[in-house]
Backbone:
């Protein structure tokens, strides 16, 4: 996927949906997957981050707000349980998502479009690319100037702010037997990992992406993350079972300013 393709998709239509990296199991470093076993020493960074500009959307808002070409919208849940409808005008929801999730961080979505009191969003569930409609009244809308691209062939991650590249770093990606999924995703949660013996480095960015190889792994759903590593020699190679690994100084730098809800484009 080209670096600008995700932003163009959002502009044509226009989350942080929780991943508890209490949900990363010890196998993520060796297997590149997020599991559902609780693990100590991991903190969500929602409270410590600068808040993006808050939109003036109300439930009666008739259309998508005007954004710059480099911005996206993020919707954060404000109710205890968010109903997700399969289509605009559907009579009943086909999914109910709890808020908050796991360690207490809010459920958030990446916005696709806003229409007549409803918001179409990307969902942090299988299959990859799943979307649904949620009531605008259940959400708070913010804007996000950041986006991330990952090139699998170049094994390179780039962060953009306001449309300009601000940092880039080499990465390790999935092996041929368990490739990193390609597509348009978003950062579901930014986590600080305080256990010095962990395998994931000091930070991890949970993604709305799921492995196409593993539908369960060590009790988890095969969810993908961008994280550090205790094996820096694998950076630049095809080494994981799906996750994107960075050197610890690189993930620490990126996690310092990239918020949850940031769009992530993974392509060749």
Residues:
């Amino acid at each position: 996927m080209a670096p600008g393709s995700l932003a163009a998709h959002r502009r044509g239509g226009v989350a942080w949906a929780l991943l508890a990296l209490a949900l990363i199991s010890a196998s993520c470093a060796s297997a590149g997957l997020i599991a559902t076993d609780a693990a100590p020493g991991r903190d969500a960074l929602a409270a410590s981050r600068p808040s993006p500009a808050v939109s003036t959307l109300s439930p009666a808002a008739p259309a998508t707000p005007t954004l710059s070409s480099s911005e996206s919208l993020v919707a954060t849940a404000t109710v205890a349980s968010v109903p997700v409808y399969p289509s605009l005008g559907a009579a009943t929801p086909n999914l109910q998502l709890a808020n908050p999730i796991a360690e207490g961080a809010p459920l958030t979505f990446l916005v696709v479009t806003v229409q007549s009191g409803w918001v179409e969003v990307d969902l942090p569930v299988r299959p990859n690319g799943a979307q649904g409609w949620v009531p605008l009244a259940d959400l708070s809308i913010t804007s996000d100037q950041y986006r991330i691209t990952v090139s699998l062939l170049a094994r390179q991650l780039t962060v953009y702010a306001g449309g300009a590249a601000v940092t880039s770093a080499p990465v390790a990606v999935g092996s041929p037997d368990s490739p990193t999924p390609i597509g348009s995703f978003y950062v579901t949660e930014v986590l600080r990992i305080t256990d010095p013996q962990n395998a994931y480095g000091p930070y991890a960015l949970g993604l709305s992406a799921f492995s196409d190889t593993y539908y369960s792994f060590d009790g988890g759903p095969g969810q993908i993350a961008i994280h550090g590593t205790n094996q820096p020699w694998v950076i630049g190679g095809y080494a994981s079972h799906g996750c994107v690994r960075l050197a610890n100084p690189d993930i620490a730098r990126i996690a310092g300013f990239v918020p949850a809800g940031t769009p992530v484009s993974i392509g060749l």
